[in-house]
């Protein structure tokens, strides 16, 4: 019995990897602007404010997507919304690649933001509802790893495109290829979803118990385990939750709510995203040539991916709080070093002048 509990069906691995491609797209579309932004500034003669807007406008789409992601997944199912996100990613990649003006590019980037939110919210939910309980946490963590892999891939793609071409070609065409290559993982994501079934929990909630059981037969290692999982799903649906929204503000949950919101807020305000979005331009400002700047950016993607793997192995051993605390401290030190190095370079150049 213990051996059976540790087994994972090939179907579960397949659908988890398929769903995790959504995380890869999340990372790809988030970081693709890092290689293109310098060329876009020249192409469309953008001011500093416009550069910031074309970089961050994707977050407007994310904000819009948050308001509809849960509703759509409850109405139409997890799989259908993941497929929709793949289509959105493909369309936004093509639209951005062929954008003839700054504003058109912004619109397509906002659409990509909607796709990002759909995948970032639905992918872990879908994996969690499909995976057996004994491996659920491990398989959900695959999504986070896929995000960092997506960031690494886009850094590598950007470097491959920009490093082997002239500045003139990159300004006119190179950045379009950076945007357009996103169609490939989008189509792979869509194809990978074809053999995946719908979430058994969603099927059960919509009165499709027989269909839910058929999916669970593929997920679980035996028919008995599938029947037990279906019973547990149906029993959980019968539990009446009498909590209200105002309960979040009582003395028990308010401190937890404040801590959770502040953690998310300060994580975004830390400045780490600025490194991810502007890495090639930062390296160019530090004196790197075009090719060197892009290759140095690839190293960031590698480190990001490796540390994610290490963190996934440590999170259950040393605890969330310690890992978050030491991670925040290390990030603060690194950002301070970046600041001091740029101040040193500026002072050095001033003295030379």
Give a concise summary.
By secondary structure, the protein is an all-alpha fold.
Secondary-structure map with pairings?
Blueprint: H1 2-6, H2 10-31, H3 33-43, H4 48-56, H5 58-76, H6 78-97, H7 102-130, H8 136-163, H9 167-180, H10 183-192, H11 200-205, H12 209-219, H13 223-238, H14 254-269, H15 272-285, H16 290-318, H17 320-352
Explained architecture:
It is a single chain. The protein has a single domain, classed as MFS general substrate transporter like domains (Growth Hormone, Chain: A). 83% of the residues lie in helices and 0% in strands. The protein has 17 helices and no strands.
Instruction: State the name of the first-level CATH class.
Output: Mainly Alpha
Helix-and-strand structural type: mainly alpha
Total count of strands = 0
Q: The biggest beta sheet, please? A: none
* Quaternary assembly: single chain
H/E series: HHHHHHHHHHHHHHHHH
First-to-last CA distance: 76 Å
Number of helices: 17
CATH superfamily: MFS general substrate transporter like domains
